[in-house]
Batch of 2 targets.
Target 1
Amino acid sequence: MRKETDLSRVHAATSLKKTVGDSVRIGVVTAEWNPDITQAMRDACIEALVSHGVNENRIQSVSVPGSFELPYAAQQMIQRDGMDAVICIGCVIQGETRHFEFIAQATAQGIMRVALENNTPVIFGVLTTQNMQQALDRAGGAHGNKGVEAALTCLKMLSL
Ligand code: RBF
């Protein structure tokens, strides 16, 4: 017998395909800091979007120097490029200075602000970890790939 959770997952995937359709345009912005992490998350994210029925030609992928720049680029992709949703991917690793706090806070608040002010889903696919191992674990390691979660979150928000 199938568990209820299995069924609801199947239902969610089917309805996502139906609701989001072929015409949706999704922007993916990736920060270049910690590139091994962010590129692995971006690739898994795009793969997940395509496997859920998003037209590959309608995914626009750009990169920015660091996570701090993600909100501005997301806003440009909405206002200038007409994206229906934007997924922001970054990785902020705690260092010895307080930079970590400033960058992580500003990025999170900036992304939320761009989403609300533009009435458009902007997804927070930004890892904030204490060290590189924790980041690796979440970019295709022991804790999966958070790029995939960001893709699924985006599709759920588009199908609201
Ligand atoms: N950007 C990241 O995406 N992740 C980081 O871990 C990160 N650490 C930084 C640490 C320092 C000391 C500085 C100066 C910048 C760091 N940045 C990081 C870059 C930041 O997001 C942004 O690109 C720059 O501050 C330029 O606006």
Note: The two ends are 30 Å apart (CA to CA).
Target 2
Amino acid sequence: MNAANAAAFLALLCLAAASTLSSISSISSRAPHKLGDNFIWGAASAAYQIEGNTKGGGRGPSIWDKFFADGKHSVDGATGDPGTDSYHRYAEDIALLKSYGANAYRFSIAWPRIVPRGGRNSPVNREGIAYYNRLINEVIKQGMTPFVTIYHWDAPQALEDKYGSWLSETIVDDFEHYARILFTEFGDRVKHWITLNEPLTISAEAYVVGIFAPGHTDLTESYKVAKNQIMAHARTYHLYKTEFAAQKGVIGITLNGNWFEPAENTAHARENAQVMLDFQWGLYADPIYKTGNYPKSMQERNWEYLSWFTPQESEYILHTADFMGMNAYTSSAVYGNVSSNPSTGYTYSSFNFMNGTMVGGESNEGWLWDAPWGFEKLLVYLWETYHYPIYITENGFSVKDENKKPLNDLIQDWDRVNYHDGYLNAMLNAMQRGADIRSYFAWAITDNLEWASGYSSRFGITHVDFDTLVRTPKMSSQFLQQWFKWHW
Ligand code: PNW
């Protein structure tokens, strides 16, 4: 540990906020634990949330442009413009991330920028290819590793119009074509690929709850989408391992969900908690990492809604990843006296209070509670259940009412510092308990378009003024820099 840096940072913390003394002493008293030179850390983003320029650069419309066009699906009628205008300001963001000490940047590529109409016979947009070449080259020039998400929810609207995008298995062919373009154009420099980001958020929020594009509410549809997502993922994996093996990269999928804690010491509470883990993680993780099929609890409870795999398909999808990407933010409590009701979705038989109090500190989002104890349990659970190396591809916090504070207060984002401190130490504990964890990406590199919450909910370790688009580092970026200095 670099004592001078540590002391300087502690002094900074003390000067700026006497109220955080308890978390400071817990930071300083911890035994250092080395992560090793190969550990990857950085921050993450997604194309639709940051790029802006949705009509420029030859980009075609995505399902989010259409979904947000009526002004009713997001806070204040927010849309993908301006985003953070990273289409033009990417170099500034990459330089900031570098200045925080990170060694990697996770970002996504917008399908409609590469293939504006989406299909396997549609024209390729060379301007889009040129843009991502500039971006990738800038990351590499700064000495960082590009971690690329192939799909972070922005399907070309033309495919939605043509066949309902993820509702049709035709998307598997079109997705493979799109992925082949990316491997061909960028695979010489990109060695870390994520096929899909959070397929669960789409099958649940976009096809059951209806608050994400394209806004459907039908459980049978949602399971069709889930199967097509898994098939598209597996096809892309096989493509990479056959046609692009010489590139010698790794490829996986990023799954997401909560930790579910049995809130009572009863068999029923424990069973319900396991059902929730199965319904969030197992829906995708069991087919891809463990059995080639849906979890038993799901097969029993939702058999009439599921889109089943043939035995050949099960064989085709099983073990189609080099790693498990993992996005996790929060924990939930599960009780014995409520029967889990999976047919209404994936998240609704759990609660955010336990023993009469909330499971963790409050954020700006109703679903997000600062509960690091659950993060450790979840990491150990995923490791012991699936035995794949884990890349934490997102973890972060939206400070309550951050948007309402003046800039000078806002960038002293102690609640976010505290969140990352707690979750990083939970990660260390999980590693000490044997979990193979290889990366940590903070969500997000900058404030950005938080989907239906618009620009009102901020997750960035860098502040963005959405009128001037000026960037200002928050205290959390300094905290992360210091934390990884101590632990690398
Ligand atoms: C993830 N929930 O989404 C996404 O990968 C990011 O694009 C997003 O900005 C980030 O987390 C913060 O929300 C989530 O309702 C969306 O539980 C919704 C939920 C969880 C994650």
Note: Residues 219-243 form the longest helix (25 residues).
